Amino acid sequence: MKISIVGSGHVGLVSGVCFAEKGHEVLCVDHDKDKLAKLKRSESPFFEPGMPELLAKHQASKRLHFSDRTEDAVDFGQAIFICVGTPSTERGKADMSFVEKVARTIAENLKDYRLVIEKSTVPIKTGERIKRTMGRYIKGDVNFDVASNPEFLREGSAIEDTLKPDRVVIGVDSAKAESLLREVYKGFDCPIVVTSVGSAELIKHASNSFLALKITYANWLARLCEASGADVDEVVNGMGLDHRIGKHFFGAGIGYGGSCFPKDVDALAHISEEIGVDAPMIRLISDTNKGQLERFYNMIERELWVLNDKTLAVWGLAFKPNTDDLREAPALRLIEKLKAAGARLRVHDPVAMPNTRKLHPDLYYANDPIDACNGADALIVATEWPQYKQADLAKVKATLRVPMIFDGRNCIDRKRVSELGMTLFGVGKEPVKPGE
Ligand code: UDX
Predict the structure, then answer these.
(1) Cα–Cα distance measured from residue 315 to residue 374, given in angstroms and rounded to the nearest whole number
(2) Considering only CA atoms, which residue is closest to atom 1 of ligand 1?
(3) Which domains are assigned to the chain?
């Protein structure tokens, strides 16, 4: 089947290469000509494992093409996926101007039936609005359908998530739209959940907000553990083994970040309030999440007494491992606060240092994790990259000026820290101190 993708960001590009991998012929459109030049050289514009290989494979197989014109997308694919950005404005309201413009352009250039599918994360009723807008701008007597097909891909495992999803949700209001979307997903081995367009739109926001709520619940439990002497990992493990609760997305730390959770939680609250349903529980998720970083920073400040003129090592900059994405990264907010307090920072991240350097050229960018610790008054772990979990803590101890670790992701081996006589502060845990 011929498929067009409008908007070649994380969602669009990953969907495009994965559809090509499943045998479809795909045209990916983006207005950024520099990005397109990179893509044609099979270079990924962002860090995503497997992306350069699939770009090369399917340009060679002639199943993947690129263009900077939305008009080409209209001519090319029977199914046109809208994957452009919907950035947040004040208090969670999504800016829909890119989606609206694509809808108009598609309508103005429509010659034959097309299925238009919203894949960008959008508020409920966007499908209806796209349909109404297209109806106004269409020339002549051409039919079209609008469907919703939300994505659930995680950065860093986006290709795997897309090729082997837990489920595919398709929101449709016609049999033709359903049959075309079933054709798109023919090669996927997972349940296809067919819903109304509005339900599909809500499933996306509601799923991400639920996961954010679950993380926030773990973070709130961490506070309870800190005040009571219990251990948050023991508590969530004991709870998570109940399959009704589940252990995934139940890890306490310095809070969630990224391009989706913060934006989607705020958007759900906004959508809800706009249609007259109060959303105090959803608003609380976001506030509690922000508070988590404040608490961690306050702990560092309390322990180190004065931050001005101290040298601190920071491991991890990206909002989570396996990505170079800094959007809403707790590490970045922490760095800003530590810098403002006068600390000198020696930072390391396996892939996110080039992006961080653009924002903070004045930091010391370490060659490796141990180099970051060199002469530092303490080490802070802000992202749980596997290499940090496996780091040689004896070397860390030998390199730090003071053998003290603040672990914002509870990923450092407590037993080893204790054996080495180091000090470790975590989230929702009793500190490890020498001789205890
Ligand atoms: C998310 C959703 O998972 C995905 O389905 C959606 O479509 C896009 O948004 P992503 O933003 O790539 O994916 O990251 P994800 O792996 O979900 O992690 C989000 C944040 O939660 C990260 O900052 C991570 O560190 C944090 N997190 C995750 C926790 O703090 N604790 C956990 O137990 C799990």
Answers:
(1) 13
(2) 154
(3) 2-194 (3.40.50.720), 196-436 (3.40.50.720)
